[in-house]
Amino acid sequence: MKIQIRFNEEGALRNQRYAFTNRFTLVTELLQNARRAGARHITIEHRPEDQVLRVVDDGHGVADFQKLLSFHESGWDEGLTDQEHPFGVGFTKCLYAATRIVATSGRQQVDIDTTAALQRESFDVTTTRRAVNGTAIELHGVEINDLAKQMESLCEGFPVDVVFNGTTMARRYAEDKIALNPTPIGAIHVSGNRDGKATYATLTFLQGFCVHRPRFYQADSVNVVHLDPQQFMARLPDRDQLIDADQQLKRVDAQVKQSWRRILEVAKTQLKPQDFVATYFDAMLQWHHQDLLNDVDELPAALFRCISGYPFQTHYGQQGFLEPAAAPTRADIESGQVTLVSMGAVSEENAAHWMLARQKRWLLTEAYRLDSNHWLHPHVHYPDLEKALVEPQGETARITLEGRWVWPQVVLCESVHIRIGGHEAILADNGVCHDGNLLMPANEVSGEAIRQLSDYVDGNDQYREDDAEADCAALADLIRRLRSTDPVATLSSLLSELGLGKYALLHGRRFEVTVGVGTMPGCSVELVCAEAALASSGDGYAER
Predict the structure, then answer these.
(1) Which Pfam families match (predicted)?
(2) Distance from CA of residue 376 to its chain's centroid?
């Protein structure tokens, strides 16, 4: 027994209507045919209320009307076939999308009933009185909703002028509308080539139609690639995706990267070093060309930050205690006038390292963003790699704080001594977290150190702001109580938090305050020399 391939023509005709996945393919196929016919101008009229679509072009026309109804026979000449690999199925979309097709070219015309055509009936090609310069395709019974909203997008990379219902399409990404450079895979426009505002987003076109669109991009900030049709093919029948797209798009990205390389190499020779670095560092970073900075003395300012606030654990990578810093000079770095450090995010384990760096005014750098062979790397220190020796000096009290979120041991002392390798510092104004304890020197009055112990993010990845603020306040209150050896100093500390100066009625007044006993004591307040105040207040004594 022998078997061989057989072709069920009736089944193929019947099932072809399900091959096209996009209703707008009808329009793009007609545009494509017009372009291949050498058209320089295409007019489209759509009357949705009458279900009529008319496409007229000024190309060289249809030489053989039989080709319109021949499946998988493109009818194009050998040169265009070799260049673009037409499939010969595009016009067949009309047979399934319309009930009637009237095609006119020159003085010839054919009127096709699509139902009859799919039943293999024949149609006469007639002669018309009025000649059409090019080709006119008129489709009846067409349901193609929202075409007006889609036309600009369909034509955005198309190389031929298109007028839709009287409006000229912008074609903003067409080859005649933007600056393109030839490359081995086609013509490329690199966004940001002059201002350095690079982007990964790339619109990819083949034969004038988009075959890859990034999910997110800005219309005025996107790379544009028009692929060489001899090297790339789109998937049959819609031609809206490349064959082997995963591999082919890697080629596109590699070519955009190479195009950026050329742009950067030219810019490096034309700009001053500081201007080159300031303008193009982000682009070098995005497309992995940082090695171009290896022989440049100037450094990107984006790599440096100073510790301006109190270092603490943060949620979602926010670091409000850091500020941008000016890039140091190579001379200052190599002479040791500037110390550069790189540290991990603040944690219970490295809080002391951060406090030492802050005290020493060391400059944080993200040198890892540079090429591995850059001259800066040998000058960067990594304090995290060394153990910190942290000791309280002149300890005065030690107690456990019962917070909402954390229960650390609090150590009050005169100062805190930190030593890391050959570097040391004395903290007298700010507390520090170390080994689960909070060391609080004499001049520390806030509760911010507790934020070095935890980031206050729960198991659902939610920041517990209320708990963080409550624990900070509890620590500040505990510090105050533990240091309450002088009644005047204690009361002054409490009053300073009330902001009494905001109340004009209290300005210049003197009071006698008697405090009761307990955690929530009653107290009495009496205005001293009350005679002058009675007229305005009506009384000079209060109790609570």
Answers:
(1) HATPase_c_3
(2) 28
Cβ within 8 Å of residue 246, ≥6 positions away: none
Record the tokens describing residue 401, joined without a space: 């704080």
Q: What are the structural domain ranges in the chain?
A: 9-168, 181-270, 388-482, 502-543
Please state at what angle helix 245-270 crosses helix 273-286, rounded to 10 degrees. Answer: 170
Q: Are 392 and 411 in contact (CB under 8 A)?
A: yes
Are 169 and 88 in contact by the 8 Å Cβ rule? The answer is no
Q: What is the 3-state secondary structure (H, E, C) of 300-354?
A: CHHHEEEECCCCCCCCCCCCCCEEECCCCCHHHHHHCCCCEECCCCCCCCCHHHH
Taking the alpha carbons of 266, 267, 273, 276 in that order, is the dihedral positive or negative?
negative
Per DSSP, the residues of 70-125 read -TT-----HHHHHHH---S-TTHHHHHH-SEEEEEEEEEEEEEEHHHHHTT----E
Kind of pairing, strands 510-515 and 100-113? Answer: unpaired
**In 98-229, at which residue ranges do the beta strands (DSSP E only) sit?**
100-113, 125-140, 161-164, 167-168, 181-183, 186-189, 202-206, 209-212, 223-227
- Does residue 75 contact residue 67 with C-beta atoms inside 8 Å? yes
> How far, in Å, are 20, 91, 172, 403 from residue 240 at the CA level?
11, 16, 19, 60
Q: Are 127 and 107 in contact (CB under 8 A)?
A: yes
Residues 2 and 245: their CA atoms lie apart, in Å, by 38
What is the β-pairing status of strands 223-227 and 209-212?
unpaired
Assigned CATH class of 9-168: alpha beta
Give CA–CA dist 71/282, Å, rounded. 51
Whats the size of the chain, residue-wise? Answer: 544
For tokens 């802050």, the residue is 358
* Burial of residue 94, with CB atoms counted within 10 A of its CB: 0-12 exposed, 13-18 middle, 19 or more buried: buried
- Which residue's entry shows tokens 């000024």? 58
Answer whether 487's CB lies under 8 Å from 465's CB: no
Tens of each residue's pLDDT in the chain, 544 residues: 876 666 556 655 555 554 555 678 889 888 988 988 899 999 999 999 999 999 999 998 888 888 777 665 545 455 544 554 444 455 777 888 889 999 999 999 999 998 888 888 898 989 998 888 999 999 999 988 889 999 999 999 999 999 999 999 999 999 999 999 999 999 999 999 999 999 999 999 999 999 999 999 999 999 999 999 999 988 766 678 888 999 999 999 999 999 999 999 999 999 999 999 999 999 999 999 999 999 999 999 999 999 999 999 987 777 889 999 999 999 999 999 999 999 999 999 999 999 999 999 999 999 999 999 999 999 999 999 999 999 999 999 899 999 999 999 999 999 999 999 999 999 999 999 999 999 999 999 889 999 999 999 999 999 999 999 999 999 998 998 888 777 777 777 677 767 788 888 888 888 888 888 766 677 888 888 755 544 455 455 555 4
Q: How many CB atoms sit inside 10 A of residue 415's CB?
A: 18
